[in-house]
Design brief:
The chain has about 300 residues and is mainly beta. The protein has a single domain (about 1-295), classed as Beta Barrel (Porin). Helix content is about 10%, strand content about 60%. It has one helix at about 1-25; strands spanning about 35-45, 60-75, 80-90, 100-110, 120-135, 140-150, 155-170, 175-190, 195-210, 225, 235-255, 255-275, 280-295. Strands 1-2-3-4-5-6-7-8-9-11-12-13 form a twelve-stranded antiparallel beta barrel. A hairpin with a 7-residue loop joins strand 3 and strand 4 (about 100-110).
């Protein structure tokens, strides 16, 4: 028991080190916006168990705090690098084992051919994060790499698109996953009232889902199934696709703060191979998330 507590404490130390390293590495460089950025948010998730629609998904609410510090390092007339250190903390109200602390370090190399209006900015980005859950099975490192493009379309509309690869190395193999994806976002400036944003995302690869009982009739290796230490039932690693729709509105409160209201809807579909000679079957689940966040620069 002492060893488990020590491991948890060391993991917290490393998360803090990852965040502080991201800040300290950036201190010598020039920052276009030296302000530290933070947010406090409340989120409702109607399917935190990621349970198939045919079952009874469980909902929960979470409170989270996020703080980050971006720094800009000019490289040449047309290129620059943005380095960001960040710390995220989330507390779930009913299912405490989903609560987590995360430290992350992100780098982005940007290229823009000119300063003329409408000239796109191309980026190569990479991110590493250590996430420490109250659920030991879910603890681990996450990595992402990708390419993106930003473009001002009109004086009111801005666009962003990216393709990426994501991997997660968790304590239990069920929660180790890798997937590829792409996303598109559009921002519409409605003036002093705020900014409306819409987006879509597609992912293809591994995912973890839960089920009330053990699947004795599916061909799953022992590495792809485990009794979940968070929910009542089992969790499984399967492959499939996920489509995500996003919509939100950001309202300025002052020159350094704003209120953000958002809705995310995700639909995941997976195919399973049975050992009963009946070929494959499919399953799916849907998740809706509603959030309100207070954002500020300081």
């Amino acid at each position: 028991m002492t060893q488990i507590r020590d491991t948890h404490r060391y993991r917290i130390y490393f998360i803090a080190l990852l965040f502080v390293t991201g800040i300290s590495l950036n201190l010598p460089v020039y920052s276009a916006t030296s302000d530290m950025q933070g947010s406090v948010s409340v989120l409702h998730d109607d399917n935190v168990t990621r349970t198939m629609d045919s079952q009874k998904p469980q909902s929960d609410q979470s409170l989270s705090i996020s703080i980050s510090q971006p720094f800009v390092l000019p490289m040449s007339t047309h290129t620059r690098t943005i380095l960001t250190g960040a710390l995220d903390i989330a507390k779930y109200l009913d299912i405490d084992l989903l609560s987590y602390v995360s430290g992350r370090l992100q780098g982005e190399y940007q290229y823009r051919s000119s300063a003329e209006f409408g000239t796109p900015t191309y980026s190569l980005f990479a991110k590493a994060a250590l996430v420490d859950y109250q659920s030991q099975n879910r603890d681990g490192m996450e990595y992402s790499v990708g390419l993106s493009i930003r473009k001002t379309i009109t004086d009111r509309i801005r666009g962003y698109a990216a393709v990426f690869h994501h991997e997660r190395d968790a304590y239990h193999t069920v929660f180790q996953n890798a997937y590829d994806g792409f996303l598109i976002n559009l921002d519409y400036d409605v003036g002093s009232t705020g900014t409306l944003y819409l987006g879509g995302e597609y992912r293809d690869g591994d995912m973890a889902i839960s089920y009330p009982v053990e699947w004795t009739w599916y061909t799953l290796s022992p590495a792809d199934a485990t009794i979940d230490d968070t929910f009542s039932g089992w969790s499984y690693r399967v492959t499939g696709s996920t489509q995500i729709l996003k919509a939100g509105f950001n309202m300025p409160i002052s020159q350094s703060s704003s209120m953000d209201v958002a809705w995310n809807m995700a639909e995941s579909n997976a195919t399973y191979w049975t050992d009963l000679g009946k070929g494959s079957t499919t399953g799916s689940y849907t998740t809706n998330q509603y959030s309100v966040a207070y954002m500020l620069r300081f």
